[in-house]
Every structure is written in structure tokens, then in C-alpha cells.
Design goal:
The protein is an alpha+beta fold. It has two domains: 4-75, Winged helix-like DNA-binding domain superfamily/Winged helix DNA-binding domain (Arc Repressor Mutant, subunit A), CATH 1.10.10.10; 84-252, GAF domain (Beta-Lactamase), CATH 3.30.450.40. The protein is built from ten helices and eight strands. It has a six-stranded antiparallel β-sheet, with helices on both faces. Strands 1-2 form a two-stranded antiparallel ribbon. Helix 1 crosses helix 3, helix 5 (86-100) runs antiparallel to helix 10 (238-252) and helix 6 crosses helix 8 (176-189).
Length: 263
């Protein structure tokens, strides 16, 4: 929902509209945006006109719909190269996927949630929520928990405040206390598991991607289904997973972008 109260002036309002249009998955009419917006119609229309004239949105006059513009696409590609682990990590996740034949996910934390930045499908792909570019919960995904476990205390407290603790399945951890206990175990073992916590039948083993200085820059997971594997089967993949995560973390230490910098 577009919430004017949370907007940071005109720029904030415009960004909320871009979020709405980009995440819709289909072109939107003005009436669609008005249905979820707390902006006055005149304000919404003015912002749409500005975003369209700047190439951030594209307007189809025949269908009277808005969709992401090509300028936004160009910016997204540039940001992807500079701020995502994906380009740098590609050879390592390619090698890991080829070695184990299972689905591999690469993720980073984004405002307390999991942003999937790359994915390699298994030899026999399975249908699941996670796709590159999608946002998922941190508290009930293997890759999310792996990253949370290695945050410094202050950062962890901030992230925990942003978790919904919604019960997606009967296995979901639904309290900060239960999650804290599991994070302590993850720090002991170096890996985390998704025990059908986000989606029924979907399981995974995950590891944090740490720089040599111990800074969390991402997470790596191997995912399968209970129809093909047990958690013990995935646990056998721990050495290969940790090797790939270590290689990515090593290279990330010298990978410069504003949010991380050089250790």
C-alpha cells in the first residue's frame, strides 16, 4: 500500500509509486493505484506524470496503464552490478550447483528481509517461492537465519524488530525468543536449516557469507524437497556449501561498494 504518512517528501512519494508499479507484476491503471493509495488523486496523477516524463515509468495510452520504464531498467542493471553479490559470486555458485545438482540460492539482507539475488536450479527443478529479485522473510528461511546468526548484537536487535513472526507452516518459529535460541545453535555449527518453515515440503541447508573479518555480506543455501531428500541428506552437503561460501566471502572482502567498503 502507498502510505503518504511514511513518505519522505516528494522523492519518497515517487519511490513508493515506483515500488507499487514494479512489484505488481502487471501493468496498472490509475484506478488500481488509487485503490491502494492514500495520496489524493491529483497528487498521484502529478507524480505519475513526472515519473513517466523522466522515463522511470512507461504509459500505454491505448490500455491506459503504467509499467516500469526503460530508464528504471537501466538503473536496475547498473545497481545490480555495483550492489549485488551476484556478478562476483557467479562462478562459485555455478560450480556448487554443478557439483551437487541441487537448487542453490544466493541472498543478501535488505532492510531486515531476505533479498534473493541469484539462483541456480537443480537438475530436476522444484517449484518454490524463492526467485532472484524476490523478497522473503528472514526468520523462517535457512538463508535468512544463517545471516541473522552472524550479525553484531545491535544490528540483530534492529532486524528482529522488523520480523513479522507469522506462522507460514506448523514448523515456523513464531517468537524472537525461539529464533534467538536457534541462532545460537547456528553459530555453533556454522550452518542453518529450513525445516519446512516457510513452505510445506521445502527444506534447505544454508551458510552465511562472511568476509575474513567476520562481516556478514550474504548467505548461500542448497534447497530441496522432502519428496526427494531428508535433512540428513542435505547435511552431507555442508563441506561443499561452506567451501563456496568461504570463497565468496574472501572475494567480497576486496569488493568495493558504498554499503560495505573494505575490511
Amino acid at each position: 500500500m502507498l502510505d503518504a504518512a511514511k513518505s519522505d517528501g516528494t522523492v519518497g512519494k515517487a519511490l513508493e509509486i515506483l515500488d507499487e508499479v514494479s512489484m505488481a507484476g502487471r501493468p496498472l491503471r490509475l484506478s488500481d493505484l488509487l485503490a491502494t493509495s492514500s495520496f489524493p488523486k491529483a497528487t498521484l496523477y502529478r507524480l505519475l506524470q513526472t515519473l513517466t516524463s523522466q522515463g522511470m515509468l512507461a504509459y500505454d495510452a491505448d490500455r491506459q496503464t503504467y509499467r516500469p520504464g526503460l530508464r528504471l531498467v537501466r538503473l536496475a542493471h547498473a545497481a545490480w552490478k555495483q550492489s549485488s553479490l551476484a556478478p562476483m559470486a557467479r562462478p562459485y555458485i555455478d560450480a556448487l550447483s554443478a557439483e551437487i545438482g541441487e537448487t542453490v540460492h544466493l541472498a543478501q539482507l535488505d532492510d531486515g528481509q531476505v533479498l534473493y539475488v541469484d539462483k541456480r536450479n537443480a537438475t530436476a527443478p522444484i517449484e518454490m517461492f524463492s526467485q532472484a529479485g524476490k523478497i522473503g522473510p528472514a526468520y523462517c528461511t535457512g538463508v535468512g537465519k544463517a545471516m541473522l546468526a552472524y550479525l553484531d548484537p545491535a544490528a540483530l536487535e534492529s532486524v528482529l524488530q522488523k520480523q513479522a513472526f507469522h506462522a507460514y507452516t506448523e514448523h515456523t518459529l513464531t517468537s524472537a525468543e525461539a529464533l534467538r535460541a536457534e541462532l545460537a545453535e547456528i553459530r555453533e555449527t556454522g550452518v542453518s536449516f529450513d525445516r519446512e518453515e516457510h513452505e510445506p515440503n521445502i527444506i534447505c541447508i544454508a551458510a552465511p557469507i562472511l568476509t575474513p573479518a567476520g562481516r556478514v555480506v550474504g548467505g548461500l543455501s542448497v534447497t530441496s524437497t522432502t519428496l526427494r531428500h531428508k535433512l540428513t541428506d542435505l547435511e552431507a552437503l555442508k563441506p561443499a556449501l561452506l567451501k563456496a561460501a568461504t570463497q565468496i566471502g574472501r572475494d567480497a572482502a576486496d569488493w568495493l561498494f558504498p554499503e560495505q567498503g573494505r575490511d
